[in-house]
Design brief:
single chain, Alpha-D-Glucose-1,6-Bisphosphate, Chain A, domain 4, about 30% helix, 7 strands
């Protein structure tokens, strides 16, 4: 993974419509994706969801992981998204192209790099409305990279749909864990006051990831 990541660090993304996954309009020639999950409105839900997404909790599933393990959420950061299981996994190089971080919104978008089986972009956004409701939104536009992959487009779309549902389920699990509750194994969500301490959040996300993989 180190070699693959190093080989794409200085390369450009493989599409022109950078940042368009945050738009309501899908660029022409791409397959759109739009998924919404209500995470709730209880106290601390927004903070827990932001902390989990900031530590890539959405990608810590049985189907997916990222390399490096906890990349920084900054524009220009390159990552490898691993999809699948062990030797059957696909390495998909991506780069963070947009970051949103304000009082009631947090998220980022990454785009495809050379070596990715598709062209396009995907965004992950947590929002908090005026009534306190917290929502997790995933938007994407993509198309297969190369003729052979275009022929396998229905399979690709099925895999992408399954992976996206894994992202949604992971974030839902994090939002449901109350800071004061701990499991039989002693796992405990960081208290609201230290959610921005990345080391604490990473430990928590990693503990949940291990449980998800084991289950």
């Amino acid at each position: 993974m180190e070699e693959l990541l190093a080989s794409v660090t200085d390369l450009d993304v493989t599409y022109k419509e950078v940042g368009q996954s945050f738009s309501d309009v899908c660029p022409s020639g791409y397959q759109p994706g739009h998924y919404v999950m209500e995470l709730g409105k209880s106290e601390g839900t927004f903070e827990r969801a932001v902390a989990a997404l900031e530590a890539w909790g959405s990608h810590q599933t049985r189907w997916t992981k990222v390399f490096p393990e906890f990349p920084s959420i900054v524009v220009g950061e390159s990552v490898i998204v691993m999809i699948g299981f062990n030797t059957l996994s696909i390495a998909a190089p991506c780069r963070i192209v947009r970051v949103v971080d304000d009082e009631d919104r947090f998220g980022f978008a990454y785009g495809t790099l050379p070596g990715h089986p598709e062209q396009g972009e995907e965004s992950f956004l947590i929002t908090r409305s005026s009534d306190g409701s917290v929502t997790f939104v995933i938007k994407s536009f993509s198309r297969p990279q190369g003729k052979a992959l275009r022929l396998a487009s229905p399979i690709s779309q099925l895999i992408q749909s399954r992976v996206t549902k894994q992202y949604l389920n992971a974030m839902e699990n994090f939002s449901l864990i109350h800071p004061s509750k701990s499991s039989d194994q002693g796992r405990q969500c960081p208290e609201a006051g230290v959610f921005r301490r990345v080391s604490d959040t990473r430990k928590f996300v990693d503990s949940v990831r291990r449980e998800n993989i084991a289950s």
